[in-house]
Design a protein that fits this description.
The structure is a single chain. The protein has 561 residues and is α/β, with parallel strands linked by helices. It has helices at 3-15, 42-48, 52-62, 84-98, 129-146, 162-174, 177-182, 184-201, 204-217, 221-245, 263-272, 305-320, 334-346, 380-399, 405-422, 434-437, 445-458, 476-486, 488-497, 502-521, 529-553, and strands at residues 37-40, 68-74, 77-82, 112-116, 150-154, 276-279, 282-285, 294-297, 324-328, 355-358, 363-365, 368-369, 430-431. Helix content is 54%, strand content 10%. The protein is built from 21 helices and 13 strands. Helix 6 packs across helix 9. It has a 4-stranded parallel beta sheet, with helices on both faces. Strands 1-3-2 form a 3-stranded antiparallel beta sheet. Strands 6-7-8 form a 3-stranded antiparallel beta sheet. The chain binds arginine. Arginine binds next to loops.
Length: 561
C-alpha cells in the first residue's frame, strides 16, 4: 500500500495543470497530534489565483477514502489522519510476511553502481580517517542493494605514487627485512619519516626518491618485488582491522598501481583532444571556472593521483558499464574530484555526470582533529580494541554471567563506533568520545541494540494466537510506532537518493524511542489474550525493522545483552 501515491492521485484532481503529480509536497508534521501527513497549500496559491485556504478546502473534499480516518484544514495546510486499523493490519502483516525483505525497493532495477570506498594507503597505518569512508561506503553498498541496484564495491588501495619510490629507496638504504616482517606498518612509517628527515639536510634525496619511483613505473623487477612485499604486508594488517569491523566484502581490490599500464592511453586521449598543455615542463589540463589546472604528468614523466583516477574511471565504465560511480572520500578531496569530473567532461565522456564524489566530515575529539598524545594519527585498530574492552567492562557491570560475553562485547563496541559515525549527516564533522558513544541510553548504537534485545526477550510471551486488529485497541504511542514502521521503505529510498546512511540511523533512533515510549505507556502483557498478542505482533514487526536497519548500517543485532 502506497499511501502517499494514493494521496497524490486524489489531490491531483485539484492541482492538475499547476504542478506535476510527483512534485506534490507531502510532509510529516513535526507535532504528530496534527496528523500523519500534512499538505502545505501556499505554493500553489499564486498559480491558481486562489487563497491557500480555499485550495486546502478543495483538497480536503477530494481526500475521501476509507484510507483516511479524518482530514482537517488548518491554516492553509491539509492534515491527514490515516485509518489506523487498516494500515496496522496491512503493515504488520507485510513486515511479518516479508521479514528482512520488507522495505526493498526496485528503483535500482537493472542498474549498476560502482562504489569506491575505504581505500587506505599502503605502508601507512589504517587511521580513523579511513573509518568514515569504510563505514559510510559499506552502508551505501547495503542501501543500494536494498534498492535493487547491482553494486560493485572497490577498495582502491593507495599503492602507487612518488612516496613508494622514496620508501623503496629508504628501505634499501636504512631498512632490514626482519624489522619490516615483525612490524610492517610501523617500520615502513619509520623509514618514510626517516627519508624526509634526511632529505631536509640533503635535498638530492628527493631526486633519488623520484628516480626510484620512475624505476617502479618502468617495472624494474627488484623495485617491484620490494614494493609488492610492502603491499602484501600492509594488506595483512588492514585485514585485521576489516575483520574487527566486520566489513570485508570488497568485489575488487584494484588499487592505484593496477592502472600503471593504463595511463598512457589517457594521456594520449588528452593529447588528441588538444587538452594537454605544458607548464614548467609538466603536463597539465586547464579547467574552467576557478578550478585550478589538473596536473597530469610531472616534468620527469611521473604520473599523479589524478592521472590514475582518470584511468580508473574509464576502466570502470568500460568494465562494469556503471550507471553511477560513487567515491566515498573526505571533504578535503573535493577539488580533486571536481577536477576529475571536469577532465572527463572535456574528454567528451557524457557519463561524467554519473560520477559523484560522496564527501564526509572529519572525526574530531574535543573539537579538534583526533590524534594521539604525541600528535600522531590514531590507528583505527586501537580505537576498536578500546571500544570493545570498554563495552566488556559495561557488560560486566550489568550482567557479568551473560553467556558469550566476548562476542557480545565485540558487537557492542564495534556497533557503537559504527553507529556514532553514521548518525550525523554525512558532511558534518563528528565528535568522538568513547564513553558517550557506548552509553546504553541516548542516540547510540548500544541503545538500538538494547531495544532490540529487549523486544526479543518480550517475544517469549507470544502464544501464537491469530490476531484480528479490528478487535483490539491501538493506543496513540503504538500508532506512532506503526506509522513509523510503515515509513521504512521511504527511508530506504531517501537514503539512496541522498547517499546518506544517517537517514536510516536517525530512523532507527526514532523507532527505538517510539517503541520504548509505547512500552512505558501501557501494561504490555496482561490478561486480555488477543490484545497482548496484538501488541507482541507489533513488537515482533518492530524487531524485524530494527534488525534490518542495523544490518544496512553494518551493525549486528544481539538477542541478549
Ligand atoms: N587513498 C586515498 C586516500 O587515502 C583515497 C582514495 C579515494 N579513491 C579514489 N578513487 N581517489 O586519500
Amino acid at each position: 500500500m502506497n499511501i502517499k501515491e494514493e494521496i497524490k492521485n486524489l489531490v491531483y484532481q485539484v492541482l492538475e495543470g499547476y504542478v506535476e503529480k510527483e512534485n506534490i509536497v507531502i510532509e510529516n508534521p513535526k507535532d504528530r497530534k496534527m496528523g500523519d501527513y500534512a499538505l502545505p497549500c501556499f505554493t500553489y496559491a499564486k498559480a491558481m489565483h486562489k487563497s491557500p485556504l480555499a485550495i486546502a478546502e478543495d483538497i480536503k473534499n477530494v481526500l475521501n477514502s476509507e484510507l483516511f480516518e479524518k482530514v482537517e484544514v488548518v491554516n492553509g495546510y491539509v492534515n491527514v489522519f490515516i485509518n489506523k486499523k487498516l494500515l496496522t493490519k496491512e503493515v504488520i502483516n507485510q513486515i511479518i510476511d516479508h521479514n528482512s525483505n520488507f522495505g526493498n525497493s526496485n528503483i535500482g532495477e537493472g542498474k549498476t553502481i560502482v562504489i569506491d570506498y575505504s581505500s587506505p594507503n599502503i605502508a601507512k597505518p589504517f587511521g580513523v580517517g579511513h573509518l568514515r569512508s569504510t563505514v559510510i561506503g559499506n552502508a551505501l553498498r547495503n542501501i543500494c542493494e536494498k534498492n535493487g541496484y547491482k553494486v560493485i564495491s572497490i577498495n582502491y588501495l593507495g599503492d602507487w605514487g612518488t612516496q613508494f619510490g622514496k620508501l623503496v629507496y629508504a628501505y634499501k638504504k636504512w631498512g632490514n627485512e626482519e624489522a619490516v616482517r615483525k612490524n610492517p606498518i610501523d617500520e615502513l612509517k619509520r623509514l618514510y619519516v626517516k627519508f624526509h628527515e634526511e632529505a631536509e639536510n640533503d635535498p638530492s634525496l628527493d631526486d633519488e626518491g623520484r628516480k626510484a619511483f620512475k624505476m617502479l613505473e618502468d617495472k624494474d623487477p627488484e623495485s617491484l618485488r620490494i614494493w609488492k612485499w610492502f603491499s602484501e604486508e600492509s594488506i595483512k594488517e588492514f585485514n585485521k582491522t576489516y575483520d574487527l569491523l566486520g566489513i570485508n566484502n570488497f568485489d575488487s581490490w584494484q588499487g592505484e598501481s593496477f592502472y600503471n599500464d593504463k595511463m598512457d592511453r589517457v594521456v594520449e586521449e588528452l593529447e588528441n583532444k588538444n587538452l594537454l598543455e605544458e607548464s614548467e615542463g609538466a603536463m597539465i589540463v586547464k579547467l574552467d571556472g576557478d578550478i585550478s589546472p589538473a596536473l597530469i604528468k610531472r616534468s620527469d614523466g611521473a604520473t599523479l593521483y589524478i592521472t590514475r583516477d582518470l584511468a580508473a574511471a574509464i576502466y570502470r565504465k568500460e568494465n562494469y558499464q556503471f550507471d553511477e560511480a560513487l567515491y566515498v572520500v573526505g571533504n578535503e578531496q573535493t577539488l580533486h574530484f571536481n577536477q576529475l569530473k571536469q577532465v572527463l567532461t572535456k574528454l567528451d565522456y557524457d557519463w561524467s555526470k554519473d560520477v559523484h564524489h560522496i564527501p564526509f566530515g572529519m572525526i574530531l575529539q574535543n573539537g579538534k582533529k583526533m590524534s594521539t598524545r604525541q600528535g600522531k594519527s590514531v590507528k583505527l585498530h586501537d580505537v576498536l580494541v578500546e571500544a570493545i574492552s570498554l563495552a566488556n567492562k559495561y557488560i560486566d557491570e550489568r550482567n557479568s554471567s551473560i553467556p558469550d560475553k566476548e562476542n557480545i562485547s565485540h558487537k557492542i563496541g564495534v556497533g557503537a563506533v559504527i553507529f556514532n559515525d553514521l548518525k550525523n549527516y554525512r558532511t558534518n564533522d563528528i565528535e568522538f568520545n568513547l564513553e558517550d558513544i557506548l552509553k546504553f541510553e541516548g542516540e547510540t548504537g548500544p541503545y538500538i541494540q538494547y531495544t532490540y534485545a529487549r523486544i526479543i526477550s518480550l517475544l517469549n510471551n507470544r502464544n501464537n494466537q491469530a490476531v484480528n486488529f479490528d478487535n483490539v485497541n491501538i493506543n496513540e504511542y503504538q500508532w506512532y510506532l506503526i506509522f513509523k514502521l510503515y515509513q521504512f521503505k521511504d527511508t530506504v529510498i531517501a537514503s539512496k537518493v541522498n547517499y546518506d546512511p544517517s537517514l536510516i540511523a536517525k530512523y532507527l533512533i526514532d523507532i527505538a524511542q517510539d517503541f520504548n515510549k509505547w512500552y512505558a505507556s501501557e501494561k504490555f502483557i496482561d490478561e486480555a489474550k488477543e490484545e497482548t498478542e496484538a501488541r507482541l505482533l507489533v513488537a515482533y514487526a518492530t524487531s524485524i525493522i530494527l534488525k534490518e536497519g542495523m544490518r544496512l548500517l553494518g551493525i549486528e543485532a544481539l538477542n541478549k545483552m
